[in-house]
User: Which sequence fits this backbone?
């Protein structure tokens, strides 16, 4: 299928109508692979996808959960235009929790049960909080609201087989939300539960609206999930010993 | 029915099947908890496998919750009152990860996703009856004692596999659900954790530089 045809297909997905399901049956790895391969061809042309943008906006609205209208979301996107990459924790120490997050994101995209998918993505919040210890208490105070927000994003993406592969980007969204909140704390700005959810919504729209960022998130997810499986094959280390993945893998995956 | 429940619970906890339990549990309240517990206990072939590893569990549970554990208890409390199954499981997934210390999480990296799933399944079962919904508050205690047991196994050089995790979690579930005092202690601990987590604290801001 050409990129244009794919664009048109995505357009048809618009509001995630059930009748659009036949064309994009994505039930496993191969389908996810194909989905992101198509997105990669869009990304390579530095193209924008109006359909993807709509999906991103819809998912971001669901994160807000009636907290704000479209106008507020647009404003959020403006001040969230500052993402500068991962920060804070030592990249070597981060490999294991990052890999675990991606593995959990993968599990959320694969499970058939919506509730179980939400159990997995809910677990991402405390894991992400630990990545930036300085901001962890603020994130954990906002955790119930953030968990509801990320669960709603996941529900929105899983609703249609066409958009279900995008669940693989949720760990990236959560991680970026954490990094953005850490920057607020560094600037001396307060982090309230409302701020945290708005940041989540902004990062949701930002990642999902961009083919480039979606593809980057997916590739990162795949690479780190593979590392998780390699690490998991090793016997469990005794408590207190540095993780083998951290000893062996030093360059991160970004 | 007991045998049937045992098989199904084992399958659920080990992630082999996605079958539901509709119509299996007719009892209410304590009887329902007993059925769950007997089913889970049946995982161990009716014997207390790993029983010797649980000495001193209750003493450890008597310690006041850390801030992180308190937040995990709060999430479980929210799960017990959530309007939808999906929200409940999102909260319990987060609670599972939160109540396990970072060091233990690193040790249990292989089985942590299975523990999240096991806690979600347990929550789903407990929420089926209105009368057992409050017992969702006991899930963090079950998860915490499961993780401690598994960490001790790892420290002793024993394998920590998905199956071992399922069995330990099943045993801990049985220990809490079949014992009204243990169940009460777990719920009281949850309420204490909720109070700790709900204490007002200043909003996070950057630390001011220290003047020398």
Assistant:
């Amino acid at each position: 299928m050409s990129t244009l045809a794919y664009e048109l297909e995505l357009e048809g997905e618009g509001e995630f109508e059930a009748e659009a399901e036949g064309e994009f049956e994505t039930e496993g790895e191969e389908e996810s692979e194909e989905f992101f391969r198509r997105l990669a061809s869009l990304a390579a042309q530095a193209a924008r996808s109006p359909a993807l943008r709509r999906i991103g906006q819809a998912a971001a609205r669901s994160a807000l959960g009636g907290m704000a209208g479209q106008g507020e979301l647009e404003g959020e996107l403006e001040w969230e235009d500052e993402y500068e990459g991962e920060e804070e924790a030592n990249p070597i120490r981060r490999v294991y929790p990052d890999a675990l997050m991606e593995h959990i994101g993968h599990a959320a995209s694969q499970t058939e049960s919506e509730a179980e998918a939400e159990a997995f993505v809910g677990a991402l919040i405390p894991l992400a909080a630990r990545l930036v210890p300085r901001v962890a208490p603020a994130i954990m105070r906002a955790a119930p609201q953030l968990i509801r927000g990320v669960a709603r994003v996941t529900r929105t993406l899983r609703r249609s087989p066409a958009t279900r592969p995008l669940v693989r980007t949720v760990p990236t969204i959560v991680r970026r939300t954490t990094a953005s909140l850490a920057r607020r704390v560094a600037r001396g700005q307060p982090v309230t539960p409302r701020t945290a959810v708005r940041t989540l919504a902004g990062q949701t729209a930002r990642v999902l609206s961009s083919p480039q960022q979606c593809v980057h998130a997916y590739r990162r997810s795949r690479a780190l999930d593979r590392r998780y499986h390699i690490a998991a094959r090793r016997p469990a280390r005794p408590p207190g010993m540095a993780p083998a993945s951290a000893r062996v893998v030093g360059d991160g995956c970004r | 029915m007991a045998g049937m429940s045992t098989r199904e619970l084992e399958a659920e906890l080990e992630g082999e099947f996605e079958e539901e339990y509709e119509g299996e549990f007719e009892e209410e309240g304590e009887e329902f908890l007993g059925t769950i517990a007997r089913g889970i206990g049946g995982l161990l072939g009716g014997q207390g496998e790993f029983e010797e590893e649980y000495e001193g569990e209750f003493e450890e549970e008597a310690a006041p919750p850390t801030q992180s554990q308190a937040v995990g208890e709060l999430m479980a409390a929210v799960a017990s009152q959530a309007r939808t199954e999906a929200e409940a499981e999102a909260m319990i997934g987060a609670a599972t990860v939160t109540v396990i210390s970072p060091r233990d999480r690193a040790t249990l990296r292989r089985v942590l996703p299975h523990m999240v799933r096991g806690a979600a399944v347990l929550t789903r079962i407990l929420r089926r009856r209105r009368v057992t919904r409050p017992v969702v508050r006991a899930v963090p205690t079950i998860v915490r004692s499961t993780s401690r047991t598994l960490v001790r196994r790892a420290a002793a050089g024993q394998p920590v596999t998905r199956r071992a995790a399922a069995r330990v979690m099943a045993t801990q579930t049985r220990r809490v659900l079949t014992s009204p005092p243990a169940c009460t202690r777990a719920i009281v601990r949850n309420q204490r954790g909720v109070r700790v987590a709900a204490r007002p604290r200043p909003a996070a801001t950057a630390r001011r530089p220290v003047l020398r």
In short: DSSP finds ten helices and no strands in chain B. Chain B touches chain A through 51 residues (CB under 8 Å). Residues 1-6, 14-27, 41-49, 205-212 of chain B have pLDDT under 50 and may be disordered.
